[in-house]
Amino acid sequence: MQLKKNIATSESGFIFNPTTGDSFSANPIAAEIILKIKEGLSDESIKLFIRETYDVTSSQIEKDWDDFINQLRAANLLEI
């Protein structure tokens, strides 16, 4: 999975799609995930990072991960 090449992001969680003109604000954890996606980390590596960094269960990560990825797809931010 990867973000579209033209998507601009910042460490503070600002996301801009120049193709559509849409902009989004991500919370701190979502911003970290987006940066990890841009770095090319695998889904599993990112989930492991979240699990090790935050007090969250594997089942909660899986649920939240699916919701977040669906939001990125709906916002047309991911390469398909």
In brief:
This protein is an alpha+beta fold and 80 residues long.
Helix/strand layout:
Blueprint lengths: L7 E2 L4 E4 L4 E4 L2 H11 L4 H11 L4 H17 L6
Antiparallel strand pairs: 1-2, 2-3
Characterise this structure.
This protein is of the alpha+beta class. It has helices at 28-38, 43-53, 58-74, and strands spanning 8-9, 14-17, 22-25. It has one domain. 49% of the residues lie in helices and 12% in strands. Strand 1 and strand 2 (14-17) form a beta hairpin. The model has no long low-confidence stretch (mean pLDDT 93).
Distance between the termini: 8 Å
Structural class: alpha+beta
Number of domains: 1
- The largest sheet has its strands arranged as 1-2-3
Which regions have little confidence, pLDDT < 50, spanning 5+ residues?
A: none
Proportion in β-strands: 5-15%
Query: How does the overall form come out from the CA principal axes?
Result: globular
Radius of gyration, CA atoms, in whole angstroms: 12 Å
Order of helices and strands: EEEHHH
Tally of separate helices: 3
Portion in helices: 40-55%
Mean pLDDT score: 93
Largest sheet: 3 strands, antiparallel
Query: Got a strand count?
Result: 3
Q: Could you list some keywords that capture this structure?
A:
single chain; 80 residues; alpha+beta; three-stranded antiparallel beta sheet; 3 helices; globular
